[in-house]
Design brief:
The structure is a homodimer. Chain A is of the alpha+beta class. Helix content of chain A is 37%, strand content 20%. Chain A has 17 helices and 18 strands. In chain A, helix 1 packs antiparallel against helix 3, helix 9 crosses helix 11 and helix 14 runs antiparallel to helix 15.
């Protein structure tokens, strides 16, 4: 096993005495905690500790601060830009044992959870209340992780992202204090918005230890639908017109030909291998019927074919499971390959152009890289399927990603719609934010002056 | 005229040379710029300057910083917690000459404006696009001011507050740099959310110089409605049930008996002087009909009477004008009186209880203080109508406000749902935020180390 350097080892010795078998330096466990679902090189922490309470996290943070030991909060490891890689070693705080739903306030449509609760666990817990938590990034991520990366996913187009759906949160700051960023009121003008500062902070400002989320009533009626189009342009233009028409669509997802092929193969499905939109409609019975009618008419104008809708839960689940399997399906396209999913987001008026140029670029670069997208938000993913041992091919992928980000920025978009920065996109922030990056750096330094919280992520110091 | 102290006078002399008749030290103009619509004592700045460009604002900030002169950004002066009072003197930056709509992106449903654009001016500008900007705090505030105070108002229940509707913004920071907090993409996970940090920062972190806002399609159908209830409890319970049922109501406003009396008197109307809800419904024709049917049924369950709806624009305007005139109407309740509007926001499950206890408290305190509220958000206002020369009466109002805030906090609510902190509620933040207030202070100090930006507001240093 690698050994931890100086202060880190001392901190681990202290923590070992305190936490006993809830601290481990086992190599396999450490490796697992330095590895996310991304292409980026993993980097194991020196130790992994499993706290059960906020007070224990405060203890851990205090010991680590005293010994200048980095701290990396960990949910379930589904991040996609190397967020959990222990670039400077240190202690990984695995929050899986803090997975209680603390309080459901059905009347107020909110819930407070510990950070290790996963989104599926939460919805299972809510099952009998008639309420649900909509944010769905595909993976069964933890609420703490989703908060830290400002996750969104397929139905952000209707319900917003974690930005809109975290009402307030509790965090342990690097100085070892518990703070709460707000109360349960729906809105507040009482001071700086620390909630939104911590949402998307990727563990760099503190350890998120509880989160209050907005909930929604389960819609009276849910329909999903699938429709294929002659070209990606037609599918994107259907999306743009749908959004501009104000249809309150719950999901509108683009899957390109190559991705459809991968899905069919992976899940043994029989979808047409053409550019496809997957839809979901939420509302009253009459409202959903009206939405479907409107979207079908728009779809027809752009050559949509075989518009098929489904309302049975099992049919809807099957459809969305296929969509969510995209990343795993892509890895099966080439034996031994790894998939590198990257994402950008642009104003919707530029989306068709951005995807078309990117599709052309992928072809010219001669890479296997399906495109899927939360196109209602202008957000899409390119999932580059690579042989990680082929340096030349990896080089082409790096260059493709660089051009993709530059294209998105040039179109007034962002280098990441939802995957976040991690260390994979640290070098993209200067081009996106200019001098604002210095303000982010000031904020980081004011809250974490010793740069102990997940160092090397978002802000390179 | 008062004279500016040392450095302030030097800064003003410099700026005077540079800006000529776009800088004034005229007492009447200074007084007007230190006076908002609140009860709080005004405090005039030493000078008022009227820049026309971001570059000019950078010049002003640089001169002021060099001479350690406070800077107070000013929109149109409709704030309600003394936000613009020049507590430490200094230079007021009046942004009224920066009132251009910079670009309307109808396809993307967004617009970028200079900070001096007012919300009515913006909607007038958008008139032919079929789009509108929904946030409506009543007063015709500037977009810069609304952004700075995280304003909301009557239709936040459906469209959110400035928090949800500012996509990104540009600001001049205290070190004299222009930063942009984001691009036009609908969502982003690329770094700290500086947009939300500046929204609600009340001029304490920089001067907001451009704002990109979300727009919405003007609904196909709009209906307003009015209904009276036996008690305030019944009106509030109608609200709670409506929200919990998921009706996408656009506005749901409570007006209590005393406020109805004031409105009738001020605008010569004939409304019943009972607890009343004002509603607005947005949607398709069928959708609005369904919403009205649902709300009317809920209303009936709580003894609602005389449910009357209107769709003609002139009838709707008349209704909402009456609601928006509440503050002005209240000042007419007692000749020579001033009105002190305070606001709190609580989880909706506690709203009926909070309003009932507050109504009782008002009666026991023997004050004239109508209640109105954006009750769909759990937010309500107590407008205390006072003789400002009567110290004993003012003392009772101060105590009432203290108890109101304590009551809201005890119910997991906030000391201000939408008016903000200014200097009127600076002393309330410690109880609300605890140690999180220290994090806010760190952020303030990191961005404005000399405490020159609107000093004494939000953070007391």
């Amino acid at each position: 096993m690698d050994s931890a350097v100086g202060g880190n080892q001392t901190a681990i010795d202290f923590l070992n005495q305190r936490f006993g078998d809830r601290l481990t330096t086992n190599q396999a466990i450490r490796d697992r905690h330095g590895t996310d679902e991304s292409y980026h090189a993993p980097k194991a922490p020196d130790a992994v500790v499993f706290p059960q309470t906020t007070e224990e996290i405060i203890e851990i943070v205090n010991v680590c601060r005293e010994h200048r030991t980095p701290i990396i909060p960990f949910g379930v490891g589904t991040s996609l830009e190397g967020h959990i890689a222990a670039l400077k070693g240190g202690v990984c705080i695995d929050l899986c044992q803090m997975n209680a739903v603390l309080s459901v306030n059905a009347e107020d449509l909110d819930v407070t959870v510990e950070p290790g609760v996963t989104r599926k666990q939460l919805n299972e817990h809510l099952r009998d209340t008639g309420l649900f938590f909509p944010i769905d990034p595909g993976a069964d991520a933890t609420i703490g992780g989703m908060t830290a990366t400002r996750a969104s996913g397929t139905n952000a187009v209707r319900y917003g992202t974690m930005r809109e759906n975290v009402l307030s949160l509790g965090a342990v700051t690097p100085d070892g204090r518990y703070i709460r960023t707000g109360k349960r009121a729906r809105k507040s003008s009482a001071g700086y918005d620390l909630t939104r500062l911590f949402v998307g902070s990727e563990g760099t400002l503190g350890v998120i230890v509880d989160v209050t989320l907005r909930l929604y009533g389960i819609p009276e009626t849910i329909y999903s639908a699938v429709c294929t189009y002659p070209t990606v342009d037609d599918a994107v233009n259907t999306t743009i017109t749908t959004i501009q028409s104000g249809v309150p669509i719950a999901r509108i997802e683009l899957v390109d030909e190559m991705q459809m092929r991968a899905l069919n193969k992976y899940s043994n499905l029989g979808y047409a291998e053409r550019p496809t939109l997957f839809f979901e409609f939420h509302g009253t019975k009459a409202g959903v019927a009206e939405q479907i009618e409107n979207v079908r008419a728009i779809s027809d104008d752009f050559g949509g074919a075989d518009f098929a809708s489904a309302s049975r839960p099992e049919d809807r689940s099957k459809l969305w499971q296929a969509r969510h399997d995209a990343h795993y399906a892509n890895m099966q396209l080439r034996p031994g390959a790894k998939a590198w999913p990257t994402d950008v987001c642009v104003p919707i008026s530029r989306l068709a152009e951005c995807i078309a140029e990117t599709r052309k670029d992928i072809e010219e670069t001669n890479l296997v890289a399906p495109i899927v997208g939360h196109v209602g938000d202008g957000n899409f993913h390119v999932d580059m399927v690579l042989d990680p041992g082929d340096a030349e091919e990896v080089g082409r992928a790096v260059a493709l990603n660089d051009r993709l980000v530059a294209r998105a920025l040039e179109m007034d978009g962002t280098c990441s719609g939802e995957h976040g920065v991690g260390h994979g996109k640290v070098d993209k922030l200067a081009a996106e934010h200019g001098d604002a990056l210095d303000v982010m750096r000031s904020v980081k330094q004011s809250i974490d002056p010793l740069n102990l919280m997940n160092p090397g992520k978002i802000i390179s110091l």
